[in-house]
Amino acid sequence: MSHGGYVLAGYAASAVAIGAYALRVLGRGRALSRRVPPKDRRWT
Amino acid sequence: MELAVHLRAAVSLLGRFPALAGVDLDVAPGEIVLIQGPNGAGKTTLLRACAGLVPVVRGVAVVLGHDLRVDARLVRRRVGLLGHATFLYDDLTVADNVRFWSRACGASRADADAAMARLGLEGRLADVVVARLSAGQRRRASIAAMIARRPELWLLDEPHAGLDQAGRDVVDTLVRDAAAAGATVLVASHELDRARALAGRTVTIAGGTIPSGGTTPPVLASGSPVYGPRGRQNDGWVDAGAPGAPGEVVGVP
Amino acid sequence: MFRDAWLVAGKDLRLEARSRVTTNQVAPFAVTVLILFAFALDPDSDVLERATAGLFWVAVLLSSLLALQRAFTVESVDGNRDALRLSGLEPAGIFLGKACAVAAQLIVLEVVLGIGVVVLYDATLAGPLLLGATCLAATAGLAAAGTLYGVLAAGLRVRDTLLPLLLFPVVAPVLIGGTRAFEAALGDVPGEGWPWVGLLCVFAAVYTAFGVLAFGPILEES
Amino acid sequence: MTSPAPSGTEPSGTAAGAGAPAHTGSQGTRVLGSVTAAGLVMLSLFALVFSPAEADQGDAVRLMYIHVPTAVVAFLAFFVTAAGSALWLWKKSRWWDLVAASSAEIGVIFTALTLVTGMVWGRPIWGVYWTWDARLTSTALLLLLFLGYLAIRRVPAEPDVRNRRAAFAGLIAVVDVPIVHYSVNWWNSLHQEPTITRLDPSIDGLMLFTLMLGIVVFLLLYLWLLVHRFRLAWLEEQLASSDLAAALVERRAEADEATISAPPAPSSAAKASGTIAEASR
Description:
The complex is a heterotetramer of chains A (44), B (253), C (222) and D (281).
Chain A: H1 4-33
Chain B: E1 5-14, E2 17-27, E3 32-36, H1 43-50, E4 56-63, E5 66-67, H2 68-76, E6 79-82, H3 94-104, H4 109-118, H5 135-148, E7 153-157, H6 165-180, E8 184-188, H7 192-198, E9 201-204, H8 217-222, E10 238-239, E11 248-249
Chain D: H1 27-50, H2 64-91, H3 94-126, H4 134-154, H5 159-191, H6 205-259, H7 266-279
Helix pairs in contact in D: 1-6, 2-3, 2-5, 2-6, 3-4, 3-6, 4-5, 6-7
């Protein structure tokens, strides 16, 4: 693969950034959900 | 007659801190009311909320006929606030400051000059840069800027602080004259003797609340003054809560 | 509205006349920036000469930040922001007044910097008409956008660090437009410069209109 | 590329009780998340394995399959932020403020990724990471504008004040975008060739399909992230306002302490807390 390193770097950076952000949002969501009664979480 | 100030379960926040946690207060036009309470009780915030500077986020707040939660802007130009801050530009002279603030609300230059004369700021003192004034002179300049506006509601936060004896007398005279002319005055002061002589009645604020028992003007005006914090102990305390919510008596053990 | 603007602008200029912060502090700072550029870029080569237009506007931008911070510091000390809200002055008038006062100070700074680049960078001020028009349009834009962000950041504890972050990306078009127009004027091809003046005028118009509309709600909040 | 789709099988949080799962997922986001995850796997296969290398760019063209979608999502996110800000000013519904805030945060992430993937692509193709290309430059300015927006959001303030401040900051930034774009474009065109065409119009069918797939999958990803981020913001708001109820109780208790010279009575405060919490809803 030509420029394989660059391609991989680009994909890895995107995967890591989006993955880390998503995990953070989900994790914080879980932590805060425990402290909010279900009736204030209309999606459940 | 329409009340000058009408608050029910008013809540105001400083950041996330509820400095006012449910205030009930009715003040009739022309009344002079002393707000007393310990440091941190919410006196300053109450006055600032009445001025429309601190938003009332819950409850009812009508001042000078306008709902503060809807059009505070119409209230602001009609009140005069004398706070801890003196509202002066350090690098301008006394005359510049007083004239700027009075012209801003449409008062004339003559009003400004009369106000300065009333506070003993005429002549040489008028052309001194504010930064070079003493604390008391600064305070006088601040009062002059306020009275030049001819406010309908006077909100005085420690008006006597930093003034000499003559200055305090001037303030008292100004307040009496204004009230006689129909203006409403709320005073928060620790100079209790002086303020009580001035005020028609006293309202006690504590923990950001004025219990509804302390708000009806006639009872307190005619009955024995309820200064002591123990005064409420026998009454119990009606929590008005949100407007329309049934009040619940929380007994004090 | 214009009466209020006049009153506020008069107050701010009087304040400046008495305190002389812009003339005694900001203007020397601007000249210092010009000298620093000369240290950074080898003055013997023609780099300075070629970069004169850009360096001029970067210096204007940096010193405009100081002028703006000063303009809003005087409103945040001693509760004057509250006093403005109590004053009954029309917010749009306050905005125009403050922007005009800032603009007047920026014009003075630009004159100082103009003399600075002529003396220090050996620039020849060709096309004075284009130069003047560029300065006016760019100053109006800078003052309008800066006043808008100034009041947004004023009253916040972090305002001194927040204002540059907010302001500089927004005024990037002013830097680009001012620099290109100056290059055209100094390079004696004014025809290429006028479209940029047009861009600067659009920028100024957009932010002045936005400020007149938005200043009220922004100032009303505590 | 991994997608941490929410798994509904995990045991729910206990403290929230009543069998309600303690996370920001729902039936809808689970479906959306699964589809997105499958799409991302498919995109990876198409982008890295099935699609051919391009004649001029070689395999570097594969970066386009994420660069273009991230850019699309970034611009969409900022458009949503602007719309949310405007709608908040109009409707004063905190819903719109939360949408604007959530979208701006996602937009900043995707803008940064757009720049990173663009630079990683530029290095082998142009020979440099950065060039003062019009699109790159205005995207960088856009990133800075919205970093400013997020910074002003983070300044603690009363919710209504913060929302108004943020809404105006968002609108001021958005008003700037066309001016920035235009001026940068114009500035650029004076000095060098217009933006290099990144993909040949006579593009190979499979490559075009991969690109379109990328855009669709990233839009789904954006939507999934937005829903979760919005719910997280909602939770934060709920906690802040329930904190207010507690703070009111605490504040009023100060009056008790002042009234009764005896030590503070916890039973009175506890009793009051129920009523006030109800009254303040």
